[in-house]
Amino acid sequence: MPELGDLIEIFRMEVAGIPLIPLLDYQHWAVYVGDGYVVHLVNLGSDSFSSSSNSSKPQTKSKGSKGKVKRQKLKDVAGNDEWRVNNKLDNKRSPRPAQEIVKEALSLVGQDMNYDVTKWNCEHFVNKLRYGIRRSWQVLKYTLVAGAGYVGGAAGTLLGPLGTVGGAAGAAVYTKALLDKLD
């Protein structure tokens, strides 16, 4: 059971009924505020994968769109998807006091906010509440994966088929090592 101020990571297994491939997994984030409720930032933009007005699905473009802060039952936000408490920065940063996290989260409920998948998404939002920093490891992960793919592709172009395999494998190992250092 989550405690006040805990970050909740929800593992989205599909978007708009389409299963996600493992490399493109997506987690939605919320902060627990008690009595089975969470507060989270949802994307209301027209460029989201989902047309639902309470979407917590990713958007397809990085350009900002409309978002809204909502308070909802965790079971409704998670639906059939798995979730877990994930306060992954607690070993590197001191979280703000739980009552402050909850008070600020609740004060934001109903507010419209800009939602930008790369600059201000649900993960940035909850990390700002708990730790006072805007951080999204998903954005960093996809940036590193894209960079690794570019490097692997360039190596393949220069070295042929074996270069592609070697370049992609090396880039993947390097990306994994960088992500492990951040966690």
Explain what this protein looks like in three dimensions.
The two termini are about 25 Å apart. This protein has five helices and eight strands; from the N terminus they run E-E-E-E-E-E-H-E-H-E-H-H-H. The model is unreliable at about 45-60 (pLDDT under 50). A hairpin with a 2-residue loop joins strand 4 and strand 5 (about 35-45). It folds into two domains: about 5-135, endopeptidase fold (from Nostoc punctiforme); about 140-180. Strands 7-1-4-5-6-8 form a six-stranded antiparallel sheet. Helix 4 packs antiparallel against helix 5. With about 180 residues, the protein is α+β, with helices and mostly antiparallel strands. Helix content is about 40%, strand content about 25%.
Q: What is the percent of helical residues?
A: 25-40%
CATH superfamily of the largest domain: endopeptidase domain like (from Nostoc punctiforme)
**SSE arrangement, N to C:** EEEEEEHEHEHHH
Numbering strands along the chain, what is their spatial order in the largest sheet?
A: 7-1-4-5-6-8
The chain-level mean pLDDT equals 76
Instruction: Find the structural class using helix and strand composition.
Output: alpha+beta
Please report the first level of CATH classification, the CATH class of the largest domain: Alpha Beta
Report the major sheet. 6 strands, antiparallel
Query: Percent of residues in beta strands?
Result: 15-25%
Pfam family, one: LRAT
Keywords: Hydrolase, Lipid metabolism, Transferase
Biased composition (Low complexity): 48-62
Family: Belongs to the H-rev107 family.
